Each structure stands twice: as structure tokens, then as C-alpha cells.
Amino acid sequence: MTASESPEPLRPPGLDEPAHEPCRPAWTCAVCPDGTPWPCSPARVQLTEAYAVDPIGLAADLAAMMPRAADEAGIVDPAELHERFVSWTFAGAAAPASEVKRR
Q1: Whole-prediction pTM
Q2: Is the N end or the C end of the chain the one with fewer CB atoms within 10 Å?
Q3: Which is more confidently placed, 36 or 93?
């Protein structure tokens, strides 16, 4: 994939929820309200479902997108990139850490 190409669609068309894909170069969600960072909560659910048999592949694919997103969207904080793209994949939760209720 070249830097100008978008990732493959997250879900086959025709399902209930539209695919929440990145709108580049800003790396915002193409479906959610303007400015919602991708992957948004619905994208995280869709990605988790799409990679249900390969959660390590999900983390690896998202980690591979981080340098492109950092370059295109101007994200310079490595912690922000990791939280946004990778950390949630290991928690098994589709919501950002800030949205997960603690016991």
C-alpha cells in the first residue's frame, strides 16, 4: 500500500453499521461527526469483530499505520499515537481507556 492509498474497508458493505474508516490525511472518522479521531469507538468494535481470530494481527496492522498517521496528521506525541492506535487492542475493549469504567 502506498502512502496515498487508504486501508482496506473494515467491513463488507451492506451491514447495519457503515464502515468507520479513516479520512486521510487528518485521520478522522469518515462517518462520525467532524473531527472525531480514527479509530473511533465504532471503528474499534468493527476492527475487533473483523480481527476476532487474529487479535495480534489487529495490533500489528494498527501499529503499522501509526507512522503514516503521525506524518500525515502531524501527531508528534508517541503516547497519544500508542493510546489511539494500539493500547486498546490489548485491553480487549472497543472503547478508549477514558471511556472504560473502572471497578
Answers
A1: 0.73
A2: C
A3: 36
